[in-house]
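Limitations

Structures in this collection are predictions, not experimental determinations, and the ligand pose is part of the prediction. Treat each record accordingly. The example that follows, with flavin mononucleotide as the small molecule, is included so readers can see exactly what is and is not provided: the inputs are given verbatim, and the output is the predicted complex.
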Amino acid sequence: MQIYLAPMEGVIDPHMRYLLDQLGGIDLCVTEFIRVSKTVLPNHVFLSACPELTPLAERSACGASKYGACSTTRVQLLGSDPELIALNAHKAAQLGAKAIDLNFGCPAKTVNRSFGGARLLDETTLLHKIVHTTRQRVPTATLVTAKIRLGYEDKDSYLRNAVAIAEAGADELVVHARSKADGYQPPAYWRYIKEIKQHIDIPVIANGEIWTVEDYIACRQQSGCDSVMLGRGILARPDLGLAIKAHQQGKYYEFLTWPKIAELTLMLLRLTKAFYPVKHMGNRIKQWLFYLQRTYPQASALFDGIKRSRDFYFIEQAIIHETLQP
Ligand SMILES: Cc1cc2nc3c(=O)[nH]c(=O)nc-3n(C[C@H](O)[C@H](O)[C@H](O)COP(=O)(O)O)c2cc1C
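Predicted complex:
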């Protein structure tokens, strides 16, 4: 059983990956998507999305954060040109990526309009070609994985796409158990994943709507998957991975209390200070509080207290105050 940290563009960036990985309970991470549209991208694009590729000592020279998460971070590519994706995948592999993940699930209008992400779920032949060409271009030791939704408008293409992806040589498949039209609205339709598992031999990882250990148990029962990918759920409950692992081992687990969570937000504020201009100061923290308030009511109060501030020291003091709460 493995716990994957979901890629979330603009939210789970290298700093957040680092923080959650340090906390524990995560086995594997995936970068935010890197969009491939016209060229083979320059090194710095890969290295800033995935600073984990750069040896620590060299990170600041390429503008990458010195904080990157686990060495098992996969580089995710998004696009629709098989040859171009394969060339970029090859480059990422040359830079040290151990695995390339292909995004066939992004619902964003701009992405779908240019024939990328979830839009490809209605184009099984193309999807097969992208995986196949990528598989052929990257070294055998480099894993090629894919992430799909159940369909575009309807939940109708998951079986043919999963089979095509497996036949094209993918090593693993993550299934976000909703259609593009479902967006991010509950529920997630985990039972469809069981059907996929009956048709392909590669590992299938279940994703979508796992907010609690109970959700994990239900997802496992309905999908037949051992491994899961956690997205918004782990942002709302940062030690959800640890709790799931404890459950697996039959151990009691006590969730982190608010002051400990506030300490994590303080770490994120300090980690990101040098990376954002003053006008965006604290934005990442405010964004995280949005997710945290689902579990911790104190997060809403903290958000209200800092929402208009861009002053690092003001925000820092407000968070420190929370870390001192009994
Ligand atoms: C803000 C946001 C950004 C996302 N960015 C990506 C991305 O870059 N690549 C990707 O494959 N999925 C992306 N996703 C989808 C998540 O990885 C995940 O599949 C989805 O949130 C469902 O899981 P959850 O219910 O556990 O959050 C994003 C989701 C959100 C909400």
